[in-house]
Amino acid sequence: MYTEKVLDHFSNPRNMGEVEGANGIGTVGNAKCGDIMQISLKINDEGIIEDVGFKTFGCGAAIATSSMATEMIKGKSIEEALQLSNSAVVEALEGLPPAKIHCSVLAEEAVKAALEDYYKRKEEAK
Length: 126
Ligand code: FES
Fold this sequence. Notes:
The chain is α+β, with helices and mostly antiparallel strands. The protein has one domain (4-121): Sufe protein. Chain: A (Alpha-Beta Complex), CATH 3.90.1010. The protein has helices at 4-11, 60-73, 78-82, 86-92, 101-124, and strands at residues 24-29, 36-43, 49-57. Strands 1-2-3 form a 3-stranded antiparallel beta sheet. Strand 2 and strand 3 form a beta hairpin. It is globular. The site of FE2/S2 (inorganic) cluster has 11 residues, from helix 2 and helix 5. FE2/S2 (inorganic) cluster binds next to helix 2 and helix 5.
């Protein structure tokens, strides 16, 4: 049912935890399943994501998709991270069962929420 990639990221999650000194944190939830996901980012002055972490109170697919999403945006620019789509995460994981697609949507939303928080903090600091 799950691909090797999903099982790998589920049993060996990358970038788990909250980044120290994060300057953008986004938390999103899915009302249907009740799962929650948080992405924290450390973005440098050049707009590059230096470090990224995730925390989730979620299912196995939520763990695998957020782990993969962090790998896909680490070292990338804000613009590139904004382009991250849930379908790109699913593709990188070589597929997810249809009932689990919403878990990847949560990962995309959490990345976007963290970037929004980064911009909000920047505005407030002005
Ligand atoms: Fe809801 Fe996976 S079942 S995030």
